Amino acid sequence: MNLRLTSSALALAAMTAPAFADVTSEQVWQSWVDYYQSLGYTVTEGKRDKAGDTLTLSDIAISGGVPDSQVSFSIPQVTLSDSGDGKVKTVFADQMTGEAQGTDPDGESYSLPFTVDMPGNVIVTSGAPEDMTHEFDYPTMDFTLTTIKSGDKETPLPIKVGVADSTGTFHIVAGSPAKYDYAMKSGAITFSGDVSSEEGGTVKFEGSLSDLETTGEMAVPDGTKIEEDMNAALKAGLAMSGVLKSGALVANFDFAGTDENEQPTSGAGKYDGKGFELSYALSQDGMAYQAGSDAGSFELTSSDMPFPINYAIESGSFDMQLPVMQSDEAQPFKFAYSLAGLTLGDAIWNLFDAQGQLPRDPASLDIDVTGQIKVTKDIFDPASMAPAADEAPEDGSEDMDAAEASPQPFEPVEVAINQFALNALGAKVNAEGTLKAPESGDMTTPVGEVNASYEGVNGLIDKLGAMGLIPEDQIMGVRMMMAMFAKPVAEGEDKLETRLEFKEDGSIFANGQQIK
Predict the structure, then answer these.
(1) Which of 258, 372, 414, 491 is most solvent-facing, going by the fewest CB within 10 Å?
(2) 179 and 79, same structural domain?
(3) Which residues, listed in sequence order, are joined to residue 289 by a DSSP beta bridge?
């Protein structure tokens, strides 16, 4: 998780979500300031005027971040009007500007200016000081980049993102922690760009996204500084979660430039997806990321390739859940991945199977692993995650050895393979089992059992041998290796099975035969 981008995105989201408010315009403004300060940002105003029921704020500056990654916004004007019925109407200037700046991994400074256009924006806030609801309506939001400056060099970077018909609510309940929840829907989202490299290459792209929906909630304790110390904020009770859903995503791009031999090269690609859903959760109890996509297809053509690259999937998903706080007690984790209906274009198949000997049915993969792990370091504590000073190499070389010497943050103590299922090339492989660390050891000498079954594998080996993909002098070795670990389920059928047993003394048995 990129924490700097996350907090910066939260700051920008607040621009495109309602400013906090109360029953008067002054309380609206103060609540808005309090929110940004809770995220580690500073807010200054150039001028304040009150005329009747309207409070006008001018030349507002918002900035925050850490030394090597900062973001700032400049808002010419915000007007907040008391409606007389306990509600407040907030309107931002039609355009605001901002800049992201910092230092890249190579130590080079960079700055990236941008503009946000929001004509016709309006927020209506109701409620009490300790419980406010904000309803917002943004007919148009346009985010525009023009240039990027790296070191002393400025390069054009024309990128534009347009968001239409955004409506939703933002709700805040004061206290410690302060609690926020939001919901937003948007219409069509379009994006385009024309990016050039220093070497003269260009990449042009455009696309659209439909029916975007996002919901989420966050609890922020008093005094926490998310940007500066995420670990301390989590220990104090910071918690956040959210869901992002989308309809169809369509994107096209083309590129031109030169290859490593200084020869001209060009190409084009496109992606067509039917929808996706992303969700996340983060607190001291752990972090979780889930993603799922509907059907999608991709195609790429290039002057460097004699044929187009294309593939498609019916669906895919990803699920990762991990603990984040150090504990002497083991904590649960999960990793799951699924890919269904993977197909490749005939041009790819023909590279190694021009005669069509292999089945080209859609392939699939399902992995579901859970277990228990010990966390030896707080994952979001930079001090504990950095290699110790005495581990750093003396010659100034890469600190690979130091990183390897530093204890890893996770120590698995139990791994359960709930499902491993691969279906491809006419063969199927399934496996399941559980492995645990012994009482006086670790997972380098696990104890447990893994069972696997195979169908169509011998037939696949025969075809690969006939096609020359497995050299003839190696086929016998492949079959002997299979025989060591797998035995036939029934005579005359291409079905095999394996039972691997891991013993307390470190020995391993395959189908009752000791192999270690």
Answers:
(1) 491
(2) yes
(3) 280, 320
Domain C-terminal end among 215, 247, 278: 215
Confidence of residue 402 (pLDDT cuts 50, 70, 90): very low
- 143 and 207 share a domain? yes
User: Per-residue DSSP letters for 171-188?
Assistant: EEE-SSSEEEEEEEEE--
Q: Establish if 503 belongs to a structural domain.
A: yes
Query: What is the C-alpha separation between 354 and 377, in angstroms, rounded?
Result: 53
6: pLDDT confidence band, cut at 50, 70 and 90?
Answer: very low
Residues 119 and 190 in one domain: yes
How far is 507 from 515, CA to CA, in rounded Å? 8
Do 364 and 482 reside in the same domain of the chain?
Answer: no
pLDDT of residue 276: 95
d(CA 135, CA 435): 52
Torsion of CA 27, 117, 219, 3, to 10 degrees: -140
Q: Name which of 110-119, 232-241, 266-275, 472-481 the model is least confident about.
A: 472-481
Residues 6+ apart with CB under 8 A from 204: 193, 194, 195, 253, 254, 255
Q: Which domain holds residue 328?
A: 314-408
| pLDDT tens digits along 46-80 | 999 999 999 999 999 999 888 788 999 999 999 99
Would you call the peptide bond into 387 cis, given omega within 30 degrees of 0 as the criterion?
no
Same domain, 10 and 127: yes
Q: For residue range 158-178, list pLDDT tens digits in order.
A: 999 999 999 999 998 888 888
Count of structural domains within the chain: 3
> Which pLDDT tens digit goes with each residue over 207-239?
999 999 999 999 999 877 787 789 999 999 999
